[in-house]
Amino acid sequence: MTGTAGARRRGRPPRTESADTRDRILAAAREVFSEHGYEKTSVRGIAKAAGVDAALVHHYFGTKEQIFEAAVAVAFAPALDAPEALAAGPLEEVGERLTRFVFGVWENPTTRTPLLAILRSAVNNETAAAVFRRLVSAQLLRRVAAQLDLPDAELRAELAAAQLVGAALMRYVIKLEPLASADLESIIRRVTPVVQGHLTQP
Amino acid sequence: MTGTAGARRRGRPPRTESADTRDRILAAAREVFSEHGYEKTSVRGIAKAAGVDAALVHHYFGTKEQIFEAAVAVAFAPALDAPEALAAGPLEEVGERLTRFVFGVWENPTTRTPLLAILRSAVNNETAAAVFRRLVSAQLLRRVAAQLDLPDAELRAELAAAQLVGAALMRYVIKLEPLASADLESIIRRVTPVVQGHLTQP
């Protein structure tokens, strides 16, 4: 990407092209991060996958950490709608709604792939873990906690999340049997009261 | 390690030297796997850290996967005593014993480091995940399950482990707040009934 195309991209591109390019870079970033994880991904690699100059990637997103955060935010977009969906119903059923939501995300390959990439990166790299903390904690768990209206609501939400993340990890990543092949409804039936208990039990 | 030392090691070394060398290789393997994870570790790298020839590493342990399994088995040795310890007490308290045991392992830096390396490797690599499955499932969880004497005991043990692994992951690896800084006893108090419930509740 040198010569005419590169030169044309110096300075701010016109508005519509700008949005297209930004989206293309973001899609490439999601793909490259998903495939190689945070540590092994370079801004240059993302630029190459998007067919643009590395400087343009920096121009739109800043550092590698900031690109990762933007890519993760896109992957988390459905999850960020969850707190509203979770609020739409009685508090006695919030455990089942959250459990079904989380397993729904993991059962669907389209949403599982980026989530798995985020989890892998967060387990392996402190910077990626910080991004995971900011997004999951600030955007997802705190919004779940806000609905509980209890002084220890955040800790409750985190322990409920721990049961769900642990079960997803063992079923979909480590593939421990019999959990990996167990009927989804039977897992949801067993996990729901735990999640509900963490969230609302006195 | 070529020349005299290398030549002296060809063929089977005498018995005591053999045990020493084997231990030295195993210690080096644990260290190198802990630091770099399964994927980035090579047999050559382990041999170099142990100060021996790569052929000798293969001679004692076989493939990289087999070395990993041997190293993980050593790291898991305290955990493998757990089922006996867990059996030493009433079944109504097995949840608390298992919870205290797992958090005890994670609170202690000496046992946390190899465990973290295993978890990281298992999340990132299918071969390492298979080793994790074999050891955790066959050696640890099935032995816990055997004490329950219930038809779904293995699934129960796995869901209890999911709560514990998820909580450890969020507290010690992702360091999500307030969970990461919460008083250990308060966490144990909240997690124990969940673990007990998974294991023994009708």
UniProtKB/TrEMBL annotation, chains A, B:
Keywords carried by this UniProt record: DNA-binding
Chain segments carrying region Disordered: 1-21
UniProt DNA-binding residue ranges: 42-61
Entry-linked InterPro entries: Homeodomain-like_sf, HTH-type_TetR-like_transc_reg, HTH_TetR, Tet_transcr_reg_TetR-rel_C_sf, TetR_C_16
Pfam assignment, any one: TetR_N
Leader sequence residues: none
Stretches assigned to the HTH tetR-type domain: 19-79
GO MF, one annotated term: DNA-binding transcription factor activity
Protein name: Transcriptional regulator
Record organism: Streptomyces collinus (strain DSM 40733 / Tue 365)
